Amino acid sequence: MSTIIALIVIMILLVVGTTRWGLHPFLSLLLAALAMGFISGLDTDTIITTLTQGFGNTLKSIGIVIACGTIIGTFLERNGGAQVIAGALLKLVGDKRSPLAMSITGFIISIPVFCDSGFVILSTLNKAISKRTRISLAVLAVALGTGLMATHVFVPPTPGPLAAAAVLGADLGLVLGLGLLVSVPVVLAGLAWATYFCVRFDISPEDLPEVDNAPTTSPAPLKALVPILLPIILIALKSVAEYPTMPFGNSSFANAISFIGNPVIALILGVFTAFVSGNITSTHDRFQWVGDGLKSAGVIILITGAGGAFGNILRATDISDTISTNMVGWELGIILPFLIAAVLKSAQGSSTVAIITTAALIAPLLDPLGLTAPAARSLVVLAIGAGAMTVSHVNDSYFWVVAQFSNMDTATALKSHTAATLLQGITGLVTVIILSFILV
What we know:
The chain is an all-alpha fold. The protein has 20 helices and no strands. The chain has one domain. Helix 1 (2-19) packs antiparallel against helix 2, helix 9 crosses helix 20 and helix 15 (335-348) runs parallel beside helix 18 (374-387). Mean pLDDT is 82; it is low at 208-216.
């Protein structure tokens, strides 16, 4: 239990350091990781190795994605494409319902695409809508972020629920159907928090240039959308190609789809699409815009990597064993997998790790808990998913992606994004419990 107490103290100091003492999140996270390593009794070599591996592994998976996504965003900002897209979207749904539009967009996109990638790709659109409608960027960011988070933890072929279904022997089709059902009220809970609470945070997209009088060379809406849609479609096709039923078989076509659908390759292709989507004639402008995008991405990449380093230090401690040992004996039925996943998620940051770890812990307990029926196994997967979104905070790389791409300071991100994921997790659990009364 001393490890858990130490974690709580360090988390409090981390939040105070960034909000009250003005310590940059990059340094705060690194110091927190080092402190946690020493307090947990890790030797110095292990601390250094774990810290650097966590930083490197996080950037290995998302560093290029953030850089390319930011370049795409810069091009859409500078060539007027973001404003064109925002105008078309708002013409369709109306200005007042733009948070709903972003929430639905996130809900759909996150089924095949990771939260981080989806938010990076769509953050420019968020900023453009905020500038056009004068709706706070906090509202739109939480609406999009919670929409992305919901299907990420509930709906295969996202890796977390897909792996949990395999570990627990749950029917994948049933998990998919029930996951979509559960994710609807969860998305609505996030949207409600965004529209009724986050409106108090007045955040403007200051980095977005004024283009109220859009240049005559601005791209058409469909052409402007291509750099955003192309990576999403390619990533989605990769998920289809790698589905357990292998719909494309083992052909060279399937291999090609898996390659170009990798988020890194898909975003690189998106960058080159952005080069030709805005009627750019000057090679100097193109070079300058790429450089500006990379400058903006630098800070975000470093903070995200530091969050990954902190999470990796936590995974190297005995905190997961401590949590599981103290909780598996509780007789709570389907609430137990939720609680274990929620504590693991809050402790180490990764939703996918929390889902897979909890599934492995719960698998041998399904029979004693009386959760062996097909519907029960599927609901256990969803209960774990609900826990794995509760809560996203400073040790979660997604928290920093949402905060940094939405001009939020740490305190605002905790009050808006973190609180929203807590509400979503509880909503997911309640929905799963209701379904268990009906189906089990």
